[in-house]
Hints:
Number of helices: 14
Largest sheet: none
Order of helices and strands: HHHHHHHHHHHHHH
Shape: elongated
Keywords: Transcription, Transcription regulation, Transcription termination, Transit peptide
Radius of gyration: 30 Å
GO biological process, one term: DNA-templated transcription termination
Helix content: 40-55%
Structural class: mainly alpha
Pfam family, one: mTERF
Family: Belongs to the mTERF family.
GO molecular function: nucleic acid binding
Distance between the termini: 72 Å
Amino acid sequence: MLISLHICNSLPKTPNLSSSSSSCPQNPPLYIKFRTSHRENLRYLKSLGIIDHNTKPHKLPSPQVVQHCLSTIDFLKSRGLYDTDFSRLAYLCPQLFDLNFDPSEIEPVLDFLITDLQASVQERRGIVVNCPRILFSNVEYCLQPTLSYLRKLGVKKLNVPSTLNAHLLNTRVEKLRKTLKFLRSIGLSHEEAAGFSSRMPAIFGYDIEDNLRIKFEFLVYEMGRSLEELKEFPQYFGFSLGKRIEPRHWHLKKRNVQIKLNRMLLWSDNRFYAKYK
């Protein structure tokens, strides 16, 4: 809302002036702005990416909604977020800027990331930006059990604000346990499965039937590799079957060459195919 004060320039009074001269002189009026206008607020929200620049005028948010958005922005910035973060937050979690959203709802998660995870303010910011949906997770029933389970497995440095860690923290314990169960089913002991996953925590993000099992079966039945080789190189599961594993396996097989998994998969294409022409 724009509140302005119109100030007339004062002039000395002169007798016998016409009635028209009793009004303010023709000098340009002076205005003092006390509050930012609704239009300027809309422009600010557009610059942050919260409002699409192509939004038609009749679909723009009301002053009430805009003020609520500004309050939410102030709250999040007070917790360490930057202007450059809001476009991603608005895209992935538009409910953050809904009129019914109360910033106090996400306070427990922000506190959890500092106190339980022991992340710094800057690390917390990175985790939130990488996985904004974590803000709406239940601390007691979701985040704390997951953190405890991962730590028991030996997964370290979960406070590092990587995309992997952010999504890992927001993964339910039930899904983590299913992955451990799969590792047990292919022949690993509980201790080996725990160590395997701590060395390759990204494994928790892969689908068991459509990814892990298919890669394991290709390793054993097509490549003729042993479980021991997999234990030595758990990162095997992180490579694409169709784009990396299969092409390189068949390339080597045609040349009757057998090398270790890590050497087969870690080398760049140029180095690999130059070596094994």
